[in-house]
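Translate structure to sequence.
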């Protein structure tokens, strides 16, 4: 039974209650952190934690599907993660390749559209081809938009958007008064609404150069739970916390209360 169904059973008198009325976030963004520590606690190599981390992501995708979350965006590899020991980086790349090879079929079956955001040009030819193929294969899927940020950095995203905006200007009379929407359309996540809920597992309370622009008004949820242990119960807790928040977007409480 899904979280939403459970919730529904307690509000049975309200027919056709929408996800919005139940305050199910439309877009959830997650920093999946704590794989290494999960492994270390078990005297396993760090890589064992990354493998478990893929299982946790699969479960979260299932949770999102069951609960009508429309966009799930996860941070898998940051532009700074190249600084890790070479063997860990190369194992992460292999795991990315293997996961794509294995999971795309499942995504298709569950009506999930996959996008990868980040500078994929730094990946091997093989990985780039797999990424482009997976995106192409799932492009008509609609139930869930799953986005994996890989070799992604929030600053990189802003700079690449700025470069595209600049290139566009070369073809016309240069404009000087740019608005937010001029830049926004070139950001990697321009297809998605801004995240309603941002989750970071693993105990750190920082953004680590994730979605710098898009998190402006997201609700933040930090948990000490390590990513491989982040299951549907943990996801429910995050959503329950989100449901307690009052999102004011600069207004005062009286203005947003219905
Ligand atoms: C997150 O887990 C996964 C990646 C950054 C690839 P970590 O590998 O950062 O795990 P910890 O933080 O060292 O425990
Ligand atoms: C952030 O985790 C990036 C990902 C989860 C992919 P890190 O473990 O790299 O973050 P820092 O270095 O602790 O800030
Ligand atoms: Mg970490």
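Result:
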């Amino acid at each position: 039974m899904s979280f939403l169904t459970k919730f529904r059973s307690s509000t049975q008198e309200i027919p056709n209650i929408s996800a919005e009325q139940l305050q199910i976030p439309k877009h959830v963004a997650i920093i999946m952190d704590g794989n290494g520590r999960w492994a270390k606690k078990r005297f396993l190599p760090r890589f064992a934690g990354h493998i478990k981390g893929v299982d946790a992501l699969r479960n979260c995708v299932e949770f999102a599907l069951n609960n009508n979350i429309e966009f799930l965006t996860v941070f898998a590899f940051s532009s700074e993660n190249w600084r890790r020991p070479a063997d860990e980086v190369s194992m992460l790349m292999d795991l990315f390749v293997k996961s794509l090879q294995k999971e795309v079929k499942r995504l298709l079956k569950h009506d999930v559209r996959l996008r990868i955001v980040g500078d994929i040009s730094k990946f091997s030819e093989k990985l780039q081809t797999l990424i482009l193929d997976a995106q192409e294969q799932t492009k008509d899927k609609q139930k869930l938009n799953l986005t994996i940020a890989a070799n992604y950095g929030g600053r990189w995203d802003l700079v690449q958007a700025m470069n595209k905006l600049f290139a566009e200007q070369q073809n016309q009379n240069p404009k000087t008064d740019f608005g937010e929407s001029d830049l926004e359309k070139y950001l990697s996540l321009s297809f998605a609404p801004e995240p309603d809920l941002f989750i970071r597992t693993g105990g750190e309370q920082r953004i680590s150069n994730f979605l710098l622009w898009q998190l402006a008004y997201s609700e933040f949820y930090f948990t000490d739970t390590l990513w491989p242990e982040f299951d549907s119960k943990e996801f429910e807790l995050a959503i329950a916390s989100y449901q307690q928040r009052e999102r004011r977007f600069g207004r005062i409480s009286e203005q947003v209360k219905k």
